[in-house]
Amino acid sequence: MPAPSWPPGLPTQSIRGTYSEEWGEQRLISQTDAGPAKVRRRTSAMPTKVTFEMYITFAELDVFTEFYEDILRHGSVVFAMPYPPKPSVTALFSFATPPTWQRIADQAHVRLDLKRVP
Amino acid sequence: MPFTPSFIQALTAQETGEVAIGLITITHPATPEIARISSDPTQRLGEDPLRYGTISRGQVYEHLPVNIIIPDSQEQSPPLSRMSIDNIDRELIALIRSSSEPATMTLEVVSATEPDIVQQPYPPMEVTNIQYDQFRAVFELTYKPLQAETFPVGIFSPSQFPGLFP
């Protein structure tokens, strides 16, 4: 069964300078008595942390709220979303922490803290 | 079965990108089902629910957060292995309590790049002890001790064949 898809009407365009990615630590480093440490790969797959902020309208915020609360069951399940650096590619994401938003004039400033899962 | 040259190279290298994977096969006399567990999320098996696992020799081994200690080699005791699994599901404790018969586990080591080639097989081991708390369950595994086997087998003694001794 495929994962729920990001609502087509919702943007994924981030505010300039807010998009960042952080790779998960996949190495196991064993310190030796002498010489350089031994390094090996611990696991085949590790999620990547993705954070970005975006402006959406209040109509879009309603869509996002329904998507997060009902379809994703408050962020419990993964979802498919266009990968922001390459929108033509769809990747799987999950919420690392619950999203936050604040009102800025007539728009909602949303902050997303996601994990891109392998 | 000896290690393949590429796996030996990975084991002895200063730095390696190879991943050693433990594949566990669990059988129990009470059920015909066979549970297959992998220690590594080698590939995605499904999206909803999100599942990872390893496919080896056509069999699907589901990834679970397990830690495996391969069987040791002590002089005075049979080889002992340990497998700890995170206690993430309340069904696990119910399953442990439901049967007094020991399950049999088979451990194999494969590499992520060649999952179809078993680098190190271990003979089937029996679960001899289980300790669990709210965080994890630890299974102790050992081979059936040879000392428990009768020798010689089938001797015509009064204890085994009382009808011969009226």
List the keywords.
heterodimer, A: 118 residues, mainly beta, five-stranded antiparallel β-sheet, two-stranded antiparallel sheet, 7 strands, 12% helix, elongated, B: 166 residues, eleven-stranded mixed β-sheet, 2 helices, 10% helix
Protein described:
The complex is a heterodimer of chains A (118) and B (166). Chain A is mainly beta. Chain A contains 1 helix and 7 strands. A 5-stranded antiparallel beta sheet of chain A has the order 1-4-7-6-5. In chain A, a hairpin with a 2-residue loop joins strand 5 (79-83) and strand 6 (86-104). The longest helix of chain A has 14 residues, at 58-71. Chain A is elongated and about 60 Å long. Chain A starts with 19 loop residues before the first strand and ends with a strand. The model of chain A has no long low-confidence stretch (mean pLDDT 91). With 166 residues, chain B is mainly beta. Helix content of chain B is 10%, strand content 43%. The longest helix of chain B has 8 residues, at 5-12. The model of chain B has no long low-confidence stretch (mean pLDDT 84). The interface between A and B is medium-sized, with 20 and 20 residues. Strand 3 of chain A pairs parallel with strand 1 (15-16) of chain B, so a sheet runs across the interface.
